[in-house]
Amino acid sequence: MPRKYISSLKNGEIVDDVFLVLKKEVKETKEKKPYLNLQLADKSGFIEARKWDATSQICDSFQKDTFIKIKGIVETFNNTLQIRLNEIYPVRDAQVPLNEFIPHTEKDITEMMNELRQIIKTIKDPNLTLLLNAFFSDESFCKTFSTAPAATQYHHAFLGGLLEHALSVAKLADSFSKLYPAIRRDLLITGVILHDIGKTRELSYERSFQYTDEGYLTGHLISGVLMVNEKAQRITGFPHELLNVLFHMILSHHGEHEWGSPVKPGTLEAIALHYLDNLDAKIQAATKAISENKDINSSCTEYIKIFDRKLYKK
Fold first, then answer.
1. 3-state helix, strand, coil in the chain (%, to 5)
2. 102-290 and 6-98 share a CATH fold
3. What ranges do the domains of the chain cover?
4. How far apart, in Å, are the Cα atoms of 203 and each of 147, 159, 210?
5. Distance (Å, rounded) from C-alpha 182 to C-alpha 204?
6. Hey, which CATH number is domain 102-290, 1.10.287, 3.60.10, 1.10.3210, 3.40.30?
7. For residues 193 and 142, what is the distance between their CA atoms, to the nearest angstrom?
8. pLDDT of residue 28
9. How confident is the model over 95-105, as pLDDT tens digits?
């Protein structure tokens, strides 16, 4: 039987399938009885699930980031769908087709890479051309760049998300630069393409999306600067000022200190990058939040942390 994806589940449906455990908590009822509070996932999304009267044997039989086969029923709680679990069985990785559980872009990776390369060909500055070609002639980098997610949770959190995000912002930047001649188009486009490359080192995505040690200790802004510097040092005569403004664009693209940027945008190109990057990220995140909302009786989503509000979804 073909699996029923989380996004298609309806109240009252019987569920008998395998899921990835994103979150596992052992809690107690008011009567001090243990129960399991889980968040289960497949490639279509996630759903909360609970196992009441959970024995210690069941609680200890699996961990977060592993697969379990469940039997249960979909219920509505506080106007949101969840699964009441009746049975739980651990499942070995070898029995699981991972592509059923890791979300990925709905767009064609090859087509997106070709489109991004066409944009790179429009760069006229020879130093920026050499820098971009140093990255995108590297097959290992291209494979990682086109596979990695752009985030673990909030926006473009799926395989191919980093490429999809970079391409979308590059298209926005191309149009935007035509409206403002003072902006150095070649610099803006280059900064856009390279601003998140540190995420190829920051994130792991073999199963669920997690931070690597480098991602936790350094973060993608610093990693991105280091990667650009590594390539630029191999280009004879790469201008020091040009390298500095590229560093600045990468380091400032979050916009505010409290959002992780060590410096705030201080050039036209850095300001443009910050707002275009934020626009694409927020629109994708809002679209995802609305499409995944499971409150069937409300015209709004639940509270969304990154927007600090609910979103109207009709």
1. 45, 20, 35
2. no
3. 6-98, 102-290
4. 11, 11, 6
5. 39
6. 1.10.3210
7. 12
8. 87
9. 888 778 888 89
